[in-house]
Amino acid sequence: MMPWQMPRIRKKEVMMEYKSILVPFDGSDSSRNALATAHGWAASTPDAKVTVLYVAAVPDFDSTPFILAEEMSGMGRASEARFDAMRASYLAFQRAKLESMVSKQFGSADGFDLVVEQGKPSKVIAGYARAHDVDVIVMGSRGLDAVRGTLGSVSYAVLRNVECPVLIER
User: Fold this and answer.
1) Coil, strand, or helix at residue 162?
2) By the 8 A CB rule, do 129 and 157 touch?
3) Fewest 10 Å CB contacts: which of 31, 77, 118, 120?
4) Radius of gyration, alpha carbons of the chain
5) Can you give the pTM of this predicted structure?
6) How many Å from the N-terminal Cα to the C-terminal Cα in the chain?
C-alpha cells in the first residue's frame, strides 16, 4: 500500500461537558471569538450556562481630578448617597452596553447570564470563577487596550490564579 493510500487515522476528540462557562468580555475581537466558542460549547451540552462577565472601571470620586472638578463647578462635595446613585447608574449603563454588544453578536442576549463587576480585571475574573464554581474560563488573548503580543497581562494573571481550565482564544 502506498503512503497516499493509507487510511487516515483521526485523533479521537475529547470534549468535556462544561456546565458553567465563564467568558470575560470587553468587546475586543478576541473576546467576541471567545464568546462564540463558549456559545458553541453550551449549545452542545444540555443545561450548560454561559456567564458573560464585563469588568468595569471603578469611578474614583476621591481622585484629585474629580475633587478639582467639583470645586471648579462650585457645586461642593456630593453626598455618599449621591455617589452611590452615580455608581448604580454607571453599572446599569455598563450592563446595557454589555447586553447591546452580546445582542449585536448573537441577535439577542437571551440564554446568557450577563454580569457587570468593578475592580481589577484579573482579580475580579479569578474571584468570580472561584466563588461561582466555574468549570472553564474561555477568554480572549488580548483586550481592547492591547499592545502587540500574544498573551495579555489579564489573560496571563488569570491563568496563574485559577484552578479551572482556561481556554485562550485569539
Assistant:
1) coil
2) no
3) 77
4) 21
5) 0.79
6) 40
